């Protein structure tokens, strides 16, 4: 790492936190690395990496979130529910293709099942792999468009009865995005902007590549650059890209009006449906695993820690990684991005999680 001491903050920050982030950064090898912390609204941002910094500061570039996009889709669903436009118990097939003949198990799949990975659907459609494998390291999703995702859902045969088992599924969350678009008559990208990005002031967040130089460039393990991710028909599951500062803004919204969070008097009043949605996505909803030890909300993984519950989600693309997390009880939020593809011995997620769960 050649830039371990480069620290830039958009508020005075905390010298102690800056030292903590600089030390944590030593554990991660990536051309570009950003570790960003908000503690009761006070931000500290550490940037570093083995690559050249470039003309655009690292914390102002947009990074691919991969599966860390799902909390955005979850908040979108929760807000549409708060507005009365859909219900968690609505059946996806009825909204997506009314009257179309589907398998009985598919007919029972609700919007809640799709978001919480309890639909019984596989991680990806069975016919996804033949077209993806030949270009697995360059563009596996681009050749599988939205209409194909929808057709795969309508002809699916779920492995388990909906609501009975947890199985992580990009397929299911992607179907949710297309279902919300069909139910509202609005494209998912527009819905996300109207209901989530614009209300939260996330001007540095989008679902498509930005102007030249605005986006971070991902890398393979050998340091070779990779092209920007094309998610094809899987946009709701992994298309979001954002600057680290926008990631903190998104996380801070989940902390506002909660014990230890930012003073609500410091910000303009929010729409009550947005507040209701932010509360809904933080509420523990289901348990899974051995002795039901793993807890989940609608869209966040939910773990205990010595300092209160932590809510988080990680994501990875062909050449980038992201981590988002917060502690509702103590006003702490952590956002981290790196531009190197994940590998078996990768320390990125463990390092970011440690900052969230182990920092007093």
TrEMBL record:
Pfam families from the UniProt entry: Beta-lactamase
Domain Beta-lactamase-related: 24-346
N-terminal signal peptide: none
UniProt cross-references to InterPro entries, sorted A to Z: AmpC-like (IPR050491), Beta-lactam-related (IPR001466), Beta-lactam/transpept-like (IPR012338)
Protein name in the entry: Beta-lactamase family protein
Protein's organism: Streptomyces anulatus (Streptomyces chrysomallus)
């Amino acid at each position: 790492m050649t830039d371990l001491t480069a620290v830039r903050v958009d508020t005075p920050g905390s010298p102690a936190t800056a030292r903590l982030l600089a030390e944590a950064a030593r554990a991660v090898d990536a051309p570009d690395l950003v570790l960003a912390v908000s503690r009761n609204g006070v931000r500290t941002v550490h940037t570093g990496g083995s690559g050249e910094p470039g003309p655009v500061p690292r914390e102002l570039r947009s990074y691919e979130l991969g599966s860390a996009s799902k909390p955005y889709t979850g908040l979108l669903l929760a807000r549409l529910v708060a507005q009365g436009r859909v219900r968690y118990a609505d059946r996806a097939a009825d909204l997506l293709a009314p009257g179309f003949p589907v398998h009985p198990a598919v007919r029972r799949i609700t919007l809640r099942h799709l978001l919480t990975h309890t639909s019984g659907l596989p991680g990806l459609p069975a016919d996804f792999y033949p077209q993806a494998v030949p270009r697995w390291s360059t563009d596996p999703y681009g050749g599988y468009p939205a209409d194909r995702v929808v057709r795969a859902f309508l002809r699916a045969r779920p492995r388990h009865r909906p609501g009975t088992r947890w199985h992580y599924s990009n397929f299911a969350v992607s179907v949710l995005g297309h279902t919300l678009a069909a139910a509202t008559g609005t494209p998912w990208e527009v819905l996300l902007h109207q209901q989530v990005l614009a209300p939260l002031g996330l001007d540095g967040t989008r679902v498509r590549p930005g102007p030249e130089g605005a986006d971070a460039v991902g890398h393979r393990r050998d340091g070779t650059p990779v092209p920007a991710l094309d998610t094809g028909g899987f946009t709701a599951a992994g298309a979001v890209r954002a600057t680290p500062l926008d990631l903190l803004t998104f996380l801070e919204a989940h902390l506002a009006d909660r014990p230890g969070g930012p003073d609500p008097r410091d910000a303009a009043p929010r729409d009550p449906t947005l507040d209701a949605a932010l509360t809904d996505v933080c509420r523990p909803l289901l348990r899974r695993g051995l002795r039901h030890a793993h807890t989940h909300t609608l869209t966040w993984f939910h773990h205990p820690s010595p300092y209160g519950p932590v809510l988080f989600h990680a994501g990875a693309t062909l050449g980038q990684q992201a981590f988002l997390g917060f502690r509702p009880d103590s006003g702490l939020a952590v956002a981290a991005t790196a531009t190197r593809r994940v590998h078996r011995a990768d320390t990125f997620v463990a390092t970011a999680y440690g900052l969230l769960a182990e920092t007093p």
